[in-house]
Amino acid sequence: MTRLDSLRPPALWDSSQEKYKDWLHLNVFDHETGAVGLINASLHGSPFDPRSRVLGTTVVNVPDRGWIGNVEVTGFDEATIGSSAIGLSRSGIAVDATKGAILASVRDSQDGFSATFSAEPVTAPIDIEEHLSLADGWISWYVVPRLRTSGNWTINGQEFDLANASVYHDHNWGRWHWGDDFGWEWGCFLTSGGTSFVLARTTDRAHRKLNRLSLFVQSGTERRNFSGASIDFSYMGELSCVSRRLPGALAALHQDRACPRLPAQLKLSAYDGIDEIDLTFTAREGLQLIAADPIALNGFTFIHEIVGEFSYRGEIGAAAISGSGLGIFEYVD
């Protein structure tokens, strides 16, 4: 994280302020237990509109136990919002923009998940300041593929040390309405060692119009960026159903989306004439998050988080690499 990275709230005179979105995001991969956590604090709508909302999403998927955690929703005036921090009553994320250190806290004993940890970058950031098209709006992002962490989380009363976990962080911001004609496909896949993969592209809602696909690979000190035609990407099989849908009230209104068509496996290969990667991700379980805009529109966006395991092999910088790890893939429509 650099000094320049911070939340990007609109000015009072910004005519697009009602479309404002901003969020701080963490994925935690506990390689010892196989648990995968998602901690997200986000802002939706104009800071000057009392209808706008702050969301805290804190969930963890544990093998053979499923999803634990929940979503918290509040107004801007009830949250603590700093230049690079978002805090709610039960969760929060704060970023030291000068050093890149991140502090995260979850206090949700009712839903069986709490956490307190800090994370420090071990890889350089990927800074994409350009406005990437998203329906009639745009999105930008700032990515740290890997951080080391210290602290712990507690799941259903059992405490786990996160000293050997791997962490991914990104910061996204932009202007759009949930429910517009857009989607995206994104994933991060981390080993317990020094290899990380980040995959991303934007789409239309039906995922028929596919924008340029990007794959960032970090292996030790080596980093490669594959894009476009250098990547072959495909889905295989179909995940039987999502096992958790949040928030519950919105899920109850959308029973027709209780079993969306989601991939059971994804395969990608990338080759640029020098370096190459083959990666296979196999889904374990899915979660559906339903996003509605603060402004009263007849639309919803469905964010699907799919956790699982992956394996890979390839060659980066004339060195053969291979291994396996934990990943999360996000399919939005």
What order do the helices and strands follow? EEEEEEEEEEEEEEEEEEEHEEEE
What percent strand?
Answer: over 45%
Global Rg: 19 Å
Could you please say which CATH topology applies here?
AttH-like fold
* Beta strands, count: 23
Per DSSP, the total helix count is: 1
The end-to-end span amounts to 29 Å
Describe the structure.
- With 333 residues, this protein is mainly beta.
- It has a single domain (22-332), classed as AttH-like fold (Beta Barrel), CATH 2.40.370.10.
- 2% of the residues lie in helices and 61% in strands.
- It has one helix and 23 strands.
- The strands form two sheets. Strands 1, 2, 3, 4, 5, 6, 7, 8, 9, 10, 11, 12 and 13 form a 13-stranded antiparallel β-sheet that branches. Strands 14, 15, 16, 17, 18, 19, 20, 21, 22 and 23 form a ten-stranded mixed β-sheet that branches.
- Strand 8 and strand 9 form a beta hairpin.
- The longest helix is centred in the last third of the chain and has 6 residues, at 248-253.
- The radius of gyration is 19 Å and the shape is globular.
- It starts with 19 loop residues before the first strand and ends with a strand.
